[in-house]
Write a structure and sequence with these properties.
alpha+beta; TIM Barrel; Immunoglobulin-like; 6-stranded mixed β-sheet; 8 helices; 19 strands; globular; binds zinc ion
């Protein structure tokens, strides 16, 4: 018996040693629920490594993304800008190749990406879901974008209002790309910046809204919280796969989590709000009021301002919490109609999401 136990124990410890370094890592999930028909993928599709002007090795971005609760991330090193060139040879496909194995081990979606970085104008454009980055290293900007499209890439215009002649302006070169359907989205938010012009253009021209970190430094956070989070794109995907991610991006099913705001098309913000907020029927009916419990399952504080005659003038639903709400009414036994604006869910620049709901039916 003992003779057999020893090799078994040895095998167990060898196995444990092989497994523990992975299983000991902890990931804090980000609290945005799935929608009835879609997975809510938390994505950061713009980041840099030492292969361009970032300050981390490619695998570090994958570790960070997993730890911070992301489902998808992309390394999008500049093709044309490599300040570490003297130490790290130019190889545009190397960052992806170095990190892809680790991303697969961690179950992260990791499309191959690059940032097409010409002088401004026309501005910087990211291409993801590439087969190869190298063919994009051509002198002509439009040709680089065309090459990305020949590979079936999803292309988006980055940090639109950052600098240069194209900041806040749509130029002929953008019309050329747009009319050829060679770019499909825009960063409405990049890092700490929000670009209302990009937000408006996405609505007008049916472009996909994105928000990304564009992180260059190591991420010092060990988890994602409402107060300390990267600017992210929530992507509503039919399936959690690279193909599912790409289909959802092309279809424009996104919302952008930026500071304490959610930015997106009305349809998706409505769906996200509905999935995030759970309202219990009144558990107490007084002579002139009712009390209800409102639970916010998400990681964003939901800020409400009354637009109808009934209910508190303002209300705040903290992330991952239940709030007790008192509603004054002349008819506490009957249903109560509430009308509010979610002021931090932006369906257009400066315009909150209107909601109507009935409690106590
Ligand atoms: Zn850039
Ligand atoms: Zn960048």
């Amino acid at each position: 018996m003992q003779k057999r136990l020893f090799p078994l124990l040895t095998a167990f410890f060898l196995l444990a040693a092989a497994v523990l370094p992975v299983s000991a890592q902890v990931r804090h999930e980000i609290g945005f629920p799935d929608l009835p028909d879609y997975h809510t993928l938390k994505c950061d599709l713009h980041s840099h490594s030492v292969f361009s002007d970032g300050n981390v090795w490619p695998t570090v971005r994958v570790d960070e993304a997993w730890r911070l609760g992301l489902d998808a991330t992309a390394l999008t090193d500049h093709i044309e800008y490599q300040p570490h060139r003297d130490d790290i040879p130019t190889n545009h496909d190397r960052p992806f190749e170095l990190a892809a194995g680790k991303a697969a081990q961690m179950g992260l979606l990791f499309p191959r990406g690059a940032e097409i970085t010409r002088d401004t104008p026309p501005g910087h454009f990211n291409a993801i879901f590439l087969d190869k980055v190298e063919p994009l290293a051509v002198p002509d900007f439009v040709e680089a974008v065309r090459q990305a499209n020949l590979q079936g890439a999803f292309v988006f215009w980055n940090h639109q209002g950052w600098k240069g002649e194209e900041a806040g302006r749509w130029l002929d070169v953008h019309t050329t790309l747009f009319e050829n359907k060679w770019f499909h989205g825009m960063e409405v938010c990049n890092g700490n910046s929000y670009y209302p012009t990009a937000h408006r253009w996405c609505l007008e021209k049916n472009l996909t809204m994105l928000g990304n970190s564009d992180i260059h430094q190591p991420d010092i956070n060990d988890q994602t919280t409402a107060d300390a989070h990267r600017t992210l794109t929530l992507v509503f995907a039919r399936e959690k796969s690279l193909a599912g991610l790409q289909e959802a991006l092309l279809a424009g099913r996104t919302a952008v989590w930026f500071t304490n705001q959610m930015i997106g098309r009305r349809e998706w913000l409505e769906a996200l709000l509905e999935a995030s907020v759970e309202i219990s029927p009144p558990h107490h009916r007084g002579r002139d009021h009712v009390l209800i419990k409102v639970r916010n399952h998400s990681d964003i504080e939901i800020q409400l301002r009354r637009t109808g005659p009934v209910g508190p003038a303002t209300a705040t639903l903290p992330p991952r919490s239940t709030s007790l709400v008192k509603i004054g009414t002349g008819n506490p036994q009957g249903p109560i109609e509430l009308a509010y604006t979610v002021t931090n869910f932006l369906i257009a620049p400066g315009e909150g999401l209107p909601v109507r709901l009935t409690v106590g039916e």
